[in-house]
Design goal:
10 strands
Length: 240
């Protein structure tokens, strides 16, 4: 997959190339990261990329010309998707990451900065994406979050596909608890069912724990899961 980032802080993305399995995926050629600084496309002697907003107001606004020039310099792969990082965008969901990983060969990230960006930059994007109801100094961290989430879903990045299928949010439910040795630690015991060797009982316990955790921690997700699966919302199965 080709990843193109248009950002005034391209150096912020360098750590991704060394980050665990994500960094190994880049080294293996599973994904390719390219950064493009709009400042390199500014045509005035000061390489100006921002200006005061029409109508007045605090802060500076990212100008359209350098962003368009950077964007139009990119190659266009057949299955391309352009994402604009914005607190006004749709909230990021795990399903979005899987959709972009499965359906596209190129993702382009538009990262804003300063007070915001000229409204005429918005038409470049296929989607506007937010990672939460808060405001950051730029779109770099949201873009890195999406890159991390997408690359780990690409074939060859993670060792086993089962790891991806069983994790939180893969089917609306949060992930079940995990334990390893020792069986007893400071008075805290590994549930007996996990040491029983009964794989059917273990699967039922884990599914019950997924439901219970989601019901308590994310009632919004639990309600969506109940509607999706036609579940009446009864009490999840509990075992010691």
């Amino acid at each position: 997959m080709r990843l193109d980032v248009i950002s005034l802080s391209p150096e912020a993305f360098a750590p991704l190339l060394e980050l665990g399995v994500i960094g190994r995926a880049f080294k293996a050629g599973i994904a390719h990261l390219n950064t493009h600084n709009p400042r390199d496309f500014a045509t005035d002697r000061y390489r100006k990329v921002d200006d005061e907003p029409y109508g007045g107001g605090a802060g500076m606004v990212l100008k359209p010309e350098p962003v368009y020039a950077a964007f139009e310099s990119l190659p266009v792969l057949p299955r391309r998707r352009v994402l604009l990082m914005s607190p006004q965008g749709q909230p990021l969901q795990q399903a979005d990451l899987r959709r972009w990983a499965n359906d596209h060969d190129q993702l382009v990230f538009l990262c804003g900065h300063y007070e915001g960006f000229d409204e005429r930059i918005r038409p470049l994007a296929d989607e506007e994406v937010s990672i939460g109801d808060f405001v950051l100094t730029g779109g770099e961290l949201p873009a890195m979050t999406i890159i991390n989430g997408v690359v780990r879903l690409l074939p060859g990045t993670v060792g086993t596909e089962a790891c991806l299928e069983e994790e939180s949010h893969s089917a609306l439910l949060l992930e079940h608890p995990h334990y390893t040795r020792p069986a007893s630690f400071r008075g805290l015991e590994v549930p007996a069912v996990l040491r029983s060797g009964d794989h059917g009982a273990i699967a039922r316990w884990r599914f019950g724990q997924q439901q219970e955790r989601t019901r308590l921690r994310r009632p919004d997700l639990y309600a969506r899961w109940c509607r999706k699966d036609g579940n009446a919302g009864g009490e999840p199965e509990r075992q010691a």
